[in-house]
Amino acid sequence: MNLSEIERREHYLNVNYGIRSWLFTTDHKRIAWLYLLSVTLFFFIGGLFATLMRIELMTPQGDLVQAETYNKLFTMHGVTMIFFFLVPSIPAVLGNFLVPMMIGARDLAFPRLNLASWYIFIIGGAFTLMAAAAGGVDTGWTFYTPYSSIYSNTHVVLTVVGVFITGFSSILTGLNFIVTIHKMRAPGMTWFRLPLFIWAHYATSIIFVLGTPVIAITLLLVGLERIFRLGIFDPALGGDPVLFQHLFWFYSHPAVYIMILPAMGVVSELIACFSRKRIFGYSVVAFASLGIAVIGFLVWGHHMFVSGQSVHAGMVFSFLSMVVAIPSAIKVFNWTATLYKGSISYDAPMLYALGFIGLFTIGGLTGLFLATLGINVHVHDTYFVVAHFHYIMVGGAVMGYLGGIHFWWPKMTGRTYPEIWARLAALIIFIGFNLTFFPQFVLGYLGMPRRYHVYPPEFQVLNVMSTAGASILAVGYLLPLLYLVWSLRYGAVAGANPWRARGLEWQTPSPPPTENFERTPIVTEGAYAYEKDPEEIYSLGKPAHV
Amino acid sequence: MDLGFPLFPEQASTMASRVDALFFFLVAVSVFFVALIFLAIFVFAVKYRRRAEDERPEPIEGKLWLEVAWSVIPFGLTMVMFVWGAIIFFDIYNPPDDALEISIVGRQWMWKAQHPTGQSEINELHVPLGQPVKLMMTSEDVIHDFYLPAFRVKQDVLPGRYTSVWFEATKAGVYQLFCAEYCGTQHSGMIGRVVALEPAQFEKWLSGGATGVSMIDQGASLFKRFGCETCHRAGGTNQGPSLAGLFGKTVKLQGGNTVTADENYIRESILDPRAKIVAGYQPIMPTFKGLVSEEGLLQLIAYIKSLNTAERKTS
């Protein structure tokens, strides 16, 4: 037991104790832990909903739950996973912990605002959980009108209020990151020396700030139509139901990039560290993030090719959707090229990163099927779409998140996780994921619509395969929960830089001191200078606490 | 090889093989790139595996020609997908002029269809082979979606307006009809079947059962019952314009705007007459909102359309 080695020194975890020291902390590293605990809770709640759905879908008839319950399950699964896990996961946990550390800052620009973001997130989450406990909501996470605004008799208002409130947490986090990245970089940390993780979070923050207000106002309008019968979306009241879809997707498509861009940032760090190479085409990858964030705002209509919008609008959105695919393709090629002549090790974070590239490639290519107008008509709102976005959201974002959690775990806790178990879990997740979601591509092209509680019997075999995969996936997700908690007490002492990485966050002890760096680093090299010694990439400036 | 379950949907319309050809093109492109990436990762990961803990590979900055190549080539391929897909898309939503028009009304949770000859069906649709069929669709409540996987066509069905889609069945048989837009509790029960029949059998089916009054005649009697004739007489009156030859024409509105007299315009003019006033007339028409059903509206529109053919015959 090496407890003393970590505890001998004062750091952000042992500087003070007690519940108040956590609930009133303004330390970005502690706030990251608050988020970590909360999003983990939401992840397993959302996972529970998914598990029940997959069990129901083992048979074509509805036997485990009633239709209404099933509809609530997929709605709550989507709402929880998207708004309360995927959107905050990487930015609010890893981003919170790492953005200041990677740029050599002491904290985020607005530490109290950062804590407020977490409280807002929790209040929004409480509303949504209250809606679930009170009986749930059955509109689908997309809240399409006039079903959501007039016809559904479930807890729509409570749910949209929850999502509305949580949105402000995203906006404030985005604001905090943008200001921090602009104003608080250490001396010598120029824009093109920034790690790509920072570029990705910068791009994500732009979407947070510009996109989130639109979903907030849209959901507010749904609430107003529901409560006061204002005719905004329901044609019977003089409204337009397709208007809702435009407003909803104006945020919710960029939100896809909120979920995937940070994961791309994580993967850039992992690929560089575990092949000991600069990211091939660094500036191209950096600008690809910004390109995705900007063009991503112009493609929302590709969710609406069969909605009755004009065929010419369909053409424009199809074209732009093809264009937004290119920066993602460029990133995949550059990550792959980074491996060339590298020094590659297969630690668990790298397995997640390589898994990410593979699954994201499949997710991205099947996105082209959906962007192609003639094919979209057939596969829209089928399991093909479900499979596609799970390849991006789970195969991409969740793999990136888990890779990042493993990679920075020694930094966050001062301890290492059990490597063998972690590799095993990564493998189980990869296999379970593909078995769950690949059959859904086939189901989708066969024509099985999504959100079906009962389905024709000829679809059963593929559904059983999918459910079998989901049970493997569940084991894969429970394993890290167990061994990571175990490692908090029994893991080996990690040391400052167990991966011999070059990021600034690794040049300070693990766990870091409250002020992150004993002395402000003066950066002298770009990110990923793996050909140099760690000591060569920065020099020491003034003591941080004066 | 018979697995006992399908892996690929039936092709039962003229569109099916065209959509599938494009689909297989995308599958080929995808398989190529997935194989390329997976192979590259595998080869690099094995060949350049870390052999000593203190290895320091030479840094490589990146190559401009490579960046250009792997931007331009994928872009070119996506443009092929875009153009090819757009051509099919236009064809799916532009029905031939001679298409047989069938009315569809969706509601929670059933599909109602009415043929021009008057026959109505619920959760079933009989169509002839070799004849383009155009569906004129609306919903009584929430958004639904009319989806025929074997025909590769799908269209949202909206409350308050008409949307349409067309197909031409090529293979006799019974095919799945799904509601593809989530519409509430029994969404997955809002299914039905499309029966594609040889033309002779289709005629037999049409003449069998309760021989209905045609949609035009039903529309004509509604036209009479609601007293539309009082103002919208042939030749027109001071109160209202003539409807003969109206359908498809460009109508001049008060204030100088124009509108094409399509199904959605006629529908709006019946339910919300003051929304668009024809130039030279007063806004005196009462609304028929709540008085006429979705089916009745479609019959009225069928009747008003028929005034075009009647006019063409006389002229």
Descriptive keywords:
A: 546 residues, mainly alpha, two-stranded antiparallel ribbon, B: 315 residues, alpha+beta, Immunoglobulin-like, Cytochrome Bc1 Complex, Chain D, domain 2, 2 domains, five-stranded mixed sheet, 6 helices
CATH topology of the largest domain in chain B: Immunoglobulin-like
Which range best describes the helical content of chain A: under 10%, 10-25%, 25-40%, 40-55%, 55-70% or over 70%?
55-70%
What is the CA-based Rg of chain A, rounded?
23 Å
CATH class descriptor of the largest domain in chain B: Mainly Beta
What is the helical fraction of chain B, as a range of percent? 25-40%
What fraction of the residues of chain A are assigned to beta strands by DSSP? Answer: under 5%
Can you identify the CATH superfamily of the largest domain in chain B?
A: Cupredoxins -  blue copper proteins
Describe this structure in words.
The complex is a heterodimer of chains A (546) and B (315). With 546 residues, chain A is mainly alpha-helical. Chain A has a single domain, classed as Cytochrome c oxidase-like, subunit I domain (Cytochrome C Oxidase, Chain A, Up-down Bundle). Helix content of chain A is 66%, strand content 2%. Chain A is built from 16 helices and two strands. Chain A is globular, with a radius of gyration of 23 Å. Chain A starts with a helix and ends with a strand. With 315 residues, chain B is of the alpha+beta class. Chain B has two domains: 191 residues, Immunoglobulin-like (Sandwich); 100 residues, Cytochrome c-like domain (Cytochrome Bc1 Complex, Chain D, domain 2, Orthogonal Bundle), CATH 1.10.760.10. In chain B, 36% of the residues lie in helices and 20% in strands. Chain B has six helices and twelve strands. In chain B, strands 3-2-1-5-8 form a five-stranded mixed beta sheet, covered by helices on one side. Chain B has a five-stranded mixed beta sheet with strand order 4-10-9-6-7. In chain B, strands 11-12 form a two-stranded antiparallel ribbon. In chain B, strand 6 and strand 7 form a beta hairpin. In chain B, helix 1 packs antiparallel against helix 2 and helix 4 packs across helix 6. Chain B is elongated, with a radius of gyration of 27 Å. The relative contact order of chain B is 0.11. Chains A and B meet through helix 4, helix 6, helix 9, helix 10 and helix 11 of A and helix 1, helix 2, strand 7 and strand 9 of B.
